[in-house]
Amino acid sequence: MHPMLAVTDEVATALAEGRPVVALESTIISHGMPYPQNVEMAVEVEGIVRSLGAVPATIAVLGGRPRIGLSPDDLELLASHPDVTKVSVRDLPYVVARGVHGATTVASTMRLAALAGIRVFVTGGLGGVHRGAQTSFDVSADLTELGQTDVAVVCAGVKSILDIGLTLETLETLGVPVVGFGSDEFPSFFSRSSGHAAPMRVDSAADVAAMMRAKWDLGLAGGIVVANPIPAEDEIPADEIGLIIDQALADLDRLGIHGKDATPYLLGRIVELTDGASLVANIALVRNNARLGAAIAGEFAGGVP
Ligand code: PSU
Ligand code: MN
Fold first, then answer.
1. Which residues are recorded as binding substrate (predicted)?
2. Pair 244, 188: CB distance under 8 Å
3. Residue 111 — very low, low, confident or very high, per pLDDT cuts 50/70/90?
4. Residue nearest to ligand 1 atom 7, measured at CA
5. pTM (2 decimals)?
6. Residue 267 contacts residue 27 (beta carbons within 8 Å)
């Protein structure tokens, strides 16, 4: 194991025995949802993964130490502490060297998961190409990381706070397979539809695991995006959430918020503008992704014991 990582016994043992492990990110806890729903979600999702025979490994940097697997107290700290930095890959050296707390994004969680030998990661939504990136250059490092780090990421697609078409184009350029899980359409987080076709479709966890093996056995570096549509009973119709997102984007512009603060601001504003309905949908889709991620990890490890 990499000497700079602090890995819990539960995760280390599962990895050593070749049992299924699912990585989980922490920016979704610290900067993606309000307290206390954030910590309730984090605890519940770990429970779902465990109940399906896999070991959850929530990843963060605490006191400068990259941690693979967290305690309930650690989750509470990430959910409620005022000084937790949002950490993408470029921020890792700073938080480690300074000995501070950091919540990891998709990009940095992928990198730390891969360092620990974890190949399946569950989250809610990916970062991507922001609307207006033609002038702002705001393209999430999540995409760069997917182009180079060998982890399959289960998500519910990307929100239309981003330019979904340009995000899919960029993933193609980076050589990242994007599969619609049980869907011909790429989902848009709150909604099952996006108006964009999924570049590929896969219908079972076993077939996702087979693609992971094929990709990495061919020496093709980088991730796979498994886009798992939100369950129909939990979705918010695209036209309804579209108006809210347009309002949130207008508020972002008006306030001049940009860079790493843009995504957390938009997520929080959407929760406000929907009176919490977006949060309910967000939690439902993460649960759904946790179930699929546990199944994929089980298949990739050779079947849930
Ligand atoms: N999208 C969501 N919820 C989230 C994020 C994105 O619906 O919590 C978080 C993830 O951690 C993602 C990060 O990796 O935002 C992307 O931030 P940025 O656009 O600054 O790279
Ligand atoms: Mn950005």
1. 86, 106, 140-142
2. no
3. very high
4. 125
5. 0.97
6. no
